[in-house]
Records
---
Amino acid sequence: MATTTTQDKVIISCAVTGSVHTPTMSEHLALTPDQIAEQAIEAAEAGAAILHLHARDPKDGRPSADPKIFDAFVPRIRDATDAVINITTGGSTRMTLEERLAYPLQAKPEMCSLNMGSMNFSIHPAARRIAEWKHEWEKPYVEGMEDLIFRNTFRDIKHILKVLGDDCGTRFEFECYDVGHLYNLAHFVDEGLIKGPLFIQSIYGILGGLGPDPENLVVMRTTADRLFGRDGYRFSILGAGRHQMPLLTMGAVMGGNVRVGLEDSLYLAKGQLAKSCAEQVRKIRRILEELSLEIATPDEARAMLGLKGRDAVAF
Amino acid sequence: MATTTTQDKVIISCAVTGSVHTPTMSEHLALTPDQIAEQAIEAAEAGAAILHLHARDPKDGRPSADPKIFDAFVPRIRDATDAVINITTGGSTRMTLEERLAYPLQAKPEMCSLNMGSMNFSIHPAARRIAEWKHEWEKPYVEGMEDLIFRNTFRDIKHILKVLGDDCGTRFEFECYDVGHLYNLAHFVDEGLIKGPLFIQSIYGILGGLGPDPENLVVMRTTADRLFGRDGYRFSILGAGRHQMPLLTMGAVMGGNVRVGLEDSLYLAKGQLAKSCAEQVRKIRRILEELSLEIATPDEARAMLGLKGRDAVAF
Amino acid sequence: MATTTTQDKVIISCAVTGSVHTPTMSEHLALTPDQIAEQAIEAAEAGAAILHLHARDPKDGRPSADPKIFDAFVPRIRDATDAVINITTGGSTRMTLEERLAYPLQAKPEMCSLNMGSMNFSIHPAARRIAEWKHEWEKPYVEGMEDLIFRNTFRDIKHILKVLGDDCGTRFEFECYDVGHLYNLAHFVDEGLIKGPLFIQSIYGILGGLGPDPENLVVMRTTADRLFGRDGYRFSILGAGRHQMPLLTMGAVMGGNVRVGLEDSLYLAKGQLAKSCAEQVRKIRRILEELSLEIATPDEARAMLGLKGRDAVAF
Amino acid sequence: MATTTTQDKVIISCAVTGSVHTPTMSEHLALTPDQIAEQAIEAAEAGAAILHLHARDPKDGRPSADPKIFDAFVPRIRDATDAVINITTGGSTRMTLEERLAYPLQAKPEMCSLNMGSMNFSIHPAARRIAEWKHEWEKPYVEGMEDLIFRNTFRDIKHILKVLGDDCGTRFEFECYDVGHLYNLAHFVDEGLIKGPLFIQSIYGILGGLGPDPENLVVMRTTADRLFGRDGYRFSILGAGRHQMPLLTMGAVMGGNVRVGLEDSLYLAKGQLAKSCAEQVRKIRRILEELSLEIATPDEARAMLGLKGRDAVAF
Ligand SMILES: [Zn+2]
Ligand SMILES: [Zn+2]
Ligand SMILES: [Zn+2]
Ligand SMILES: [Zn+2]
């Protein structure tokens, strides 16, 4: 019937630490394997069905792609929760593709992120607001983003689809930072290199990508509807910084899923740093429940996204 | 600066009883002057800055335009709260324009609703779900809407703008049920018959008007931006029935104000009737506060909307 | 494949005379049966596949619903062309529904227009620009539209769907003057009272309905996509007045069909009255051909719209 | 007034040869200085107010940034026309920024293109349709785009704004291939590094950027309206390949300017190669004139865009 829609349960993803924020920006940012594991496990307990994970060097919190570091927290999270473990393939804008793929290819997880295009990706203006940095690497790291490109060429993407998707049975969180990234995704669908169900992580508020105006959620939704059909994909929202909770809430009203976590925003409310990822999970959950929306369990998320299962991994 | 916006405080309007729902549909619907006054006052105490009011015949809950009935609750509400009192000029689809204007012209309130076009306006499919009606008038009233037009011709609107706006200093909640109603509003602005600040109540989910799809909020917002400029109007959201809380929440994320009340929805959550308008006020308020939004007081609402003041009325 | 679309041939509808414009506004407006027949036949020869027809009183050009007048030109057009004959059920805003249906029910045409909602519908501001009127009826007719409603209640529409659609096999040009009219259409589809393929005539620039901003074509297109699916309807564009050619052209780029004719615009170019409907047909055809678009023949239009055939009528 | 807009004259830009297409794809592509000069001059005579120019190595048609090659045609074009000369700073995806800027910094033209972000930019699927290539460089060049990034970091853009904009008085054709590029532009406006009037070249149909769906023109228009205000920028349309004429036409209806030329499309109509850029200019001009739109002269374009004048250049 034309005017009736049913709303599925909402998948909460949680991106624990990422590679964009630096230790100076929040003392609550998980840096060590222990901290990452603790925040991830607490987020899962609070209701996150998917845990999106990056690693950092425990010495100084610098982003790392070292499989040994991942090994220090991923199995521990697997043992403590039944959440879907989703490993980044984006790493940081300073890593090579080979570095970015090292751990995913070893771990063969149920899900990995996959960034759908090359782009400028920067938080360099944030450096102006910070006078004292905890670590030496931080200031040049943040300022240097002004001149860096987040590399994801068509060939890179094709490669990841082959070695992780086809060869490992990993499915993807397709990170789309701009409308053109949806067209890139459609290109690979047209080429027969991607099969559904698609999980589209639409991203708002990163300098270099689509801005955080609420109207953009409708732009992404409408474009995805046109390219894939409303039933051909799952929509999810990632709002950067202070736009996190408002945009996630709006996205859920629009039938989407949500992603929280300190990778995406260090805040819990206006002017108030989040003490943990779980705080953000609990907050979005309260809002979703006020809106009569239900939260998907990890297994419900697996079914919705067609994942291979928690036992079919190599960690 | 191009990409920075500040969010104003959010005005909560509360439409206490309206003329669409009938007593059978909810035992919590305010019908008598006492009930209307009590629910209105409680809503104001909960945070509603504007109270949108209709009257009903206390005998059987039938919509009424009788000034004597309004007289039995409006002054009482005025004495108990400092909320802005907003009297309908829409009345019900079965009243003549003269009837609809009788009390507003007597009361000269700070604010009246003004419907920006003629349209079909019906909840006749709801009658199918009701087997036993409390009052005889209800079933033909609801079923008969299938053949009724909510009349608001250009001449009617011009008349109201003159006799209430120009002559009484009343300002308007411009109720826009469809995109064309925004163009009608622009027509009167172009003709010099309306001056800002405009308060646009955008309405979703009434059969005959714009549907409740979330995308429509962006359509209305974008159209109003184009016609009036973002700073030329205040945006507000009215979502009918089960769409109330989701659409209001989305509207607030988009920088809009919100309208709750049992006129618009009898529900508090999925499958759960609201016991009072105040319950809905408290709910939207919790959501707004989760989103770091602040609630406007009645006097802040007066300043935002350019109202003449609570003492400049005739009741 | 996600990103490939094929463009169908374009159906040109031509609305010969309508009921909105009056004789004073253009000496080229067809008023008598002879004039209507001649302009219709010439338009068909120029490439119009569908002829949308109203009648006027030959004495003074006043809109008429008299079947005898229709009888004076409809069979003549049928004999001279193989175009689809489409009879208005809208008539004029001053006719009763019974009057509006008199000739369609007699003629049982392949196609009738069907207006999907009640609304204000007015060109009263045009009266200010005219100092001398040819006929006495014209000025009050045009000025009076300010206070008139174009009546099409849910019950009216249901009635037409039954007596013309179900009983005569007539299919409809669903005239949608606002976004809510698409929802009304979806309501009847949901109720099982309308079956596809739908032919949606989307209308821009009538005071009382959706304005002529080009953005609105995308609003209507996107809403129809969401409600009916891109393959569930045929999209067509009617642009009022000076917006006719630009909006039709834009609509064709968007995959839509087009409607021309002096009912919709008296002009051919900026400041230049059209001498005939055929001039407008030839103009849009030149533009479509510059854009590598092909024109549908009447029989191609019949196949695209699922019509019963030119012999299955009662005239 | 809210609902009235006036349409400016339309600026036709012509991009003569670019760096994307290769000699095998069309024998009409200008490769030598003589051919570039001839096509540019003929395009200006046909109505192009702005000529967007790249250079190619006359030996084999390979894209070149060599100032000596530019010197062989730019002064000749200047002498033969009064069109605005606009030099690319994009060059090709294989050139360094230093190479790309060599000639613009020497020539200090009235206008340069400036690409507003890094992105994948590829026509590699086109290589599959070509069996025999004229030159050895072409196949690896086209296929290799699959792995290349069009580099325009924030620091690159800031540099160009400084050395060409501030230091040479050159103004820019801001090439926006995706919605995020508009936000990048807004970022530089917010930083005070760009002053209006902005000339936004919005681009559709390049693999890696926004797709060619007509809806996207409204997305870009609406986003630009929100970020810069309707009066804060001039909108222009570049449609790649077969989408060129339809999207340009639609853009003009929306109040935009248009860009033609064999850089953007090798075709004149469906299946028919353009024999020259001027053919495309003449075609869009015919369409614009059918739509009652007027063409801007070079001096009118200079006034609309605030250019420094044809004598204030260094060639
Ligand atoms: Zn990540
Ligand atoms: Zn009301
Ligand atoms: Zn008609
Ligand atoms: Zn170029």
Note: Chain C has one domain: 12-305.
---
Amino acid sequence: MTRLKMGMVGGGIGSFIGDVHRKAASIDGLIDLVCGAFSSNEEKSIASAEALGIPQKRAYGSFEQMILEEAKLPEDERMDFVAIVTPNHVHFPPAKMALEHGFHVICDKPLTLTLDEAIELEKIVNSSGKVFALTHNYTGYPMVKQARAMIAKGDLGVIRKINVQYLQGWLATAVEKTGQKQAAWRVDPKKSGIGGALGDIGTHAENLAEYITGIQIEELAADVTAFGEGRVLDDDGNILLRFENGAKGTMTFSQIATGEENNLGIAVYGTKGSIEWYQENPNELIARWLDKPKQIFTPGGNGSYPEASDYVRIPAGHPEGYLEGFATIYRSFAKELQQINSGDTASTLPDFPTVKDGVRGMKFIYAAVESSNNNATWTKI
Amino acid sequence: MTRLKMGMVGGGIGSFIGDVHRKAASIDGLIDLVCGAFSSNEEKSIASAEALGIPQKRAYGSFEQMILEEAKLPEDERMDFVAIVTPNHVHFPPAKMALEHGFHVICDKPLTLTLDEAIELEKIVNSSGKVFALTHNYTGYPMVKQARAMIAKGDLGVIRKINVQYLQGWLATAVEKTGQKQAAWRVDPKKSGIGGALGDIGTHAENLAEYITGIQIEELAADVTAFGEGRVLDDDGNILLRFENGAKGTMTFSQIATGEENNLGIAVYGTKGSIEWYQENPNELIARWLDKPKQIFTPGGNGSYPEASDYVRIPAGHPEGYLEGFATIYRSFAKELQQINSGDTASTLPDFPTVKDGVRGMKFIYAAVESSNNNATWTKI
Amino acid sequence: MTRLKMGMVGGGIGSFIGDVHRKAASIDGLIDLVCGAFSSNEEKSIASAEALGIPQKRAYGSFEQMILEEAKLPEDERMDFVAIVTPNHVHFPPAKMALEHGFHVICDKPLTLTLDEAIELEKIVNSSGKVFALTHNYTGYPMVKQARAMIAKGDLGVIRKINVQYLQGWLATAVEKTGQKQAAWRVDPKKSGIGGALGDIGTHAENLAEYITGIQIEELAADVTAFGEGRVLDDDGNILLRFENGAKGTMTFSQIATGEENNLGIAVYGTKGSIEWYQENPNELIARWLDKPKQIFTPGGNGSYPEASDYVRIPAGHPEGYLEGFATIYRSFAKELQQINSGDTASTLPDFPTVKDGVRGMKFIYAAVESSNNNATWTKI
Amino acid sequence: MTRLKMGMVGGGIGSFIGDVHRKAASIDGLIDLVCGAFSSNEEKSIASAEALGIPQKRAYGSFEQMILEEAKLPEDERMDFVAIVTPNHVHFPPAKMALEHGFHVICDKPLTLTLDEAIELEKIVNSSGKVFALTHNYTGYPMVKQARAMIAKGDLGVIRKINVQYLQGWLATAVEKTGQKQAAWRVDPKKSGIGGALGDIGTHAENLAEYITGIQIEELAADVTAFGEGRVLDDDGNILLRFENGAKGTMTFSQIATGEENNLGIAVYGTKGSIEWYQENPNELIARWLDKPKQIFTPGGNGSYPEASDYVRIPAGHPEGYLEGFATIYRSFAKELQQINSGDTASTLPDFPTVKDGVRGMKFIYAAVESSNNNATWTKI
């Protein structure tokens, strides 16, 4: 088995999500970080490389340079794929260029700055023949996979109600004015796009609901708000949902929900049973039934389906967390690349979020903004 | 101190809510049940009286008979007030007649069958000079009162987001067709009114949100549904909320949320802190803060405000439940009557839900139905 | 159905446990409080009676007076039974006198001040032909009964491990020196007996473990401590347990466990499954299994045995608390008296704790003190 | 920064703890696995190396071979340290040999097969000048470090009561007879030593209690049992604890606690406050106080001390799990080696468990077995 070589765009030392991607990529021992355009400032990029134990010659001052230079290296030396961990406005350009130069891509969400970019990127991916993964990392949790499997097998019967929430409080005050970089770009439409919290966390909620249930949102009525003084992008929102199968539900999300840390949660109700799951306590899946006591499923615990327990790294009772869920996306992506590298064809249903999920997320953002601008009129995704 | 004498309309042996009212009325030793029109069938009424240890002569075959006969008894013998525990369509007639014959009234929610009745009843109450209480029992929980006090004192800052839910699963199947009486009248518009789950539990959610925050819902966009085959009244709904102070939120309620028992819950987010509370675990109030660790308040525990701890019957750590919360409404009602009986004037802000809350609940039902009929158009309450 | 008439010894206005007994006795509408020796100070007793709506003539200045006077009243007027809610040293005298004058007795725990008294009281009860109940109230919780039923039916297999705890923190500081009456008598061996926390809460833990499992503690090795400065009675203890069937376990109890409110809990492990229950969250029973997911049982919820659901007053999801559990003891006691009053014989296995349980509790206290005095040597109960 | 090179003893593909060590070592990007004696069967060792992406020439058939061959390699190529992940009886020999050949060592717990080995190993470590870390991984959780910091700063006042538990159920049936390798060696005294569950999990509980409180157990009274038919080593135990400062407590541990997964937990009570923590929900630390509401601390959340938050990899609300806690031991070990490699002296109080902790764990096992053999007589550690 040959380990895969990763090049990174963004993620200089001190960044939040870059470090998450690196740790997630390394947990399972399948991937080595070999190069990076960690910053658009070459000095900073080199400093980051040094701190990460990467030779200076493979620290680049721009993603363009990285892609061009790496492409020149011998096949067994050059990077296999690019990990894009920059703010939203720097997703499309490096993704497009990497794919066009023959590199696979794994990219943070939301997919792009605009819906147009997203649609174009989907075409580029399809014509490139390369693999593209989107890190909707919450789908990597074993209990999310257990819920998905239970619903797919019909354990819950026909799904009728879906409530999803993503509540954070870190923008409850104007932290973007205090020099907090994570906040600064997120409230800037030039870097975030037309959605604020919508893009940052609403898309996770949308993706989670559709991933777990296998049912798409058909239309929505959204009431999104910028509570923070001077903010132009939403930092809070409430949405009525109607699903393609007739199910109905709500989404509520916020980055001004004071005191909340990272409270992504979902409840799905079917005719025979229901499930409930919260990201902050990810190793418990609550199931309720018409005629049986409430059950608590755990990763690898009694009653786990293989669809979930196959993703568990350690015995039941040994909690796995956010990084492991994230790592599961990287592992599945890596296995897909190994499969392809060994001469097999690409999977038709790969085991990670793809550019399709990314386009859907962008459509969700656009539909929600449009609906909200029309005073919560029903709007198709 | 003289104990108060209660006459009951409805609540024959075997009824759910009648028994709840009786137990709630007796916990604090302030009230004695002395008579009842427990059933419109006189024989059944007498059988109920016998089982309850009430003399046969004070078991009546109709509320009209009870009111007329009791009015003839000497003052120190006749009932002081009427408790109405019948289905919705039998709220207005006995309430009107009792008030007009000089009896105080305590009545189950929602207030009446129709909004017109509600408005008329408010007038009757006001002109009667009698006390009228509505058993929105969930406001009786100490932790609900703690949350209300914290918000009133400004501990949470300016309220910006309010999410409330009331989830039950007992109508997930067509139990109304199995002879289940509780279900049968609730799905019948002649007995329930224009709201199904809306009236039965949605009004509790509305009342709880407004009671805890002291902020009224200004307008709503509702999407209510009758999922159960053949049902004409809603058994599920999702509502966007806008509050008078600019706060926004969601309400989701259901009686087809399979496996849920009685999951009433609320989360309120302010600029400085937030609270979260669930009825099934009523002795915990979760508080989150901008800059302090999460706290868990308990009835009578450290940090309780007098506004809450005054309602606690037993030391911290000894859980009180649904009946105690319900009893708190009865106790406050009884104390009001004792105050009046001792010659004092009635309270201007009585410590229990009143006919005003009942009218508001009816307006909520009507606004939600209207909004939903108009495809979730924003509708003022 | 005739309601039963209760006379109370102790429990003047302001007492903790007297008020609990009164509320517990009244919830189910089977019992009326008709008289009391609420205080050994006659004036205070009268004041209490007045506050409770009891005629002055039936407020007595001593239990002796109450028993003698009530015995003279006509049968349909005099009290049916005596409720003893005084500190431990005033359990035996009124119990003995009441029984000998033909009154049934319900008494708070622990049974008596000394083991000798306990053994003598058992003889008196047996020869009196009267009913004696001991308020080990925690056995009244539906989920305790569910656990007991599951174990009795063999659902858990052979029991091998039993851990029980009762943790409070209210004596973490020297509150007995601040005029707190509840604390003052509990730390006084003349009023409490040889056990401090041992008698006050350790006996509850012992009773709960034996009630739930149906298995008796055979021997114990106890290490009890008086942490509070100047205290002569234990306020904390840790005990190794060996049960008659070969099971082993631990008990830990404390009244100096800072911040704990009333944390009684138990875990029982068998060869096929296990259960876990906590008094502060009494409406959940956790069950774990060899080969099935963890389950959560609720009162009246799916999977409840009749042995538990028969004790539930309201539908699943409507929490019952401490008072309801306590009331269940009173209700069972009342039904036993009604059965006897109607001419039936007394139950051989009555549905409430009896003098036998009380003697056992006293033996537990004495064994634990003896073991601890011998540096935790194994001591038979 | 140069990454460190790790050689592994044990941990062939399919092993539980070997894989854990590898993942833990790789999360933070400081360590590369470069060689291994993954099995005493050379073919299996080579197969494991291949699966792990390690060149065949660095797959060894014995730890002796690995140590001798690696020692011959150039300094910048050979392994820096040995990770020992074998059953207990293969801890001492490779540790001794590695240290004597100039390699640092990180080793799984318990330290050795016998106490004599442990004492000898401590001498070898001390005279070697090399670094030795023991993977008591549970000390790596941020909330464990928060609890430790709170106690060290005196937030809880004087510690008076310490209860610790470690409950598993995986040996509730005779899985060792089904070919389960993990079980087979753990029940074999030749491979496990004189303690069964005592060594496997009891030592974790002992270490956790002493690490969090900074207080040593002085003496204990142990009642350990082999419930499993035919087992010679304990699979369950209950212990009374007395600490050097006068605190008292209990330990209960089991591998036959049916349905328990990995329930390590601790509660510590001081004069001013108390804490409670459970490994299965590791991102919550419960704190209770004399006069403030209960608090819940989270990693990196409000109120975290730097002593805890310095160990958090991702923002509050993003759960970290078992692997991250384990990785923290590896990271601290790696930083110590980097510090030494850069010419600094070794830390006098290194930030990871050392051989001293290992010797203490062995003394704990021996004291507990001795006490239990003497019918739970108090025995000094």
Note: Chain C has a mean pLDDT of 96.
